[in-house]
TrEMBL record:
Gene Ontology biological process terms, A to Z: regulation of DNA-templated transcription elongation
Entry keyword ATP-binding: no
Species name: Mycolicibacterium rhodesiae (strain NBB3)
Keywords: Elongation factor, Protein biosynthesis
GO molecular function: DNA binding; RNA polymerase binding; translation elongation factor activity
Domain Transcription elongation factor GreA/GreB C-terminal: 75-135
Protein name in UniProt: Transcription elongation factor
Organism domain of life: Bacteria
One Pfam family here: GreA_GreB
Amino acid sequence: MSNTDTVWITRQAHRRLQSELAALRSRPSIEVPEDFMDYDANLVANYAARQARIRQIQDLLNNAVVGEDPPDDGIAEPGMVLTVRYDDTGEVETFLLGVRGVEDADIDVYATQSPLGSAIAGARSGEQRTYSIPVASSYPSR
């Protein structure tokens, strides 16, 4: 996510992210000794992952619009709750087009970078879109 991407989130999601950020920041830092080869690789990896998540949450919170819906200009865009119907099955699905890591438990979230999210972004009501889902790699036969 770039620093100019606006993210619409609920007050509940905002509080949850603030709590998660506080918990991550409260964990002690690690000091890597000069003899790095003898240091616990898992500890270093976990620390790096924690720092990455802290940066991600900070970026989300810095760009968040809290408790407001995005403007409804009739175009599918991040922050909107969308309903789609799949032509091949007739199944109807409602979800939030958004950013993973911000979602509430009440609704499924599809990231704008997901196959469905990237296909539907910019669509207007009634417009048909197609997309392909990644196929799992095949396993070698035994």
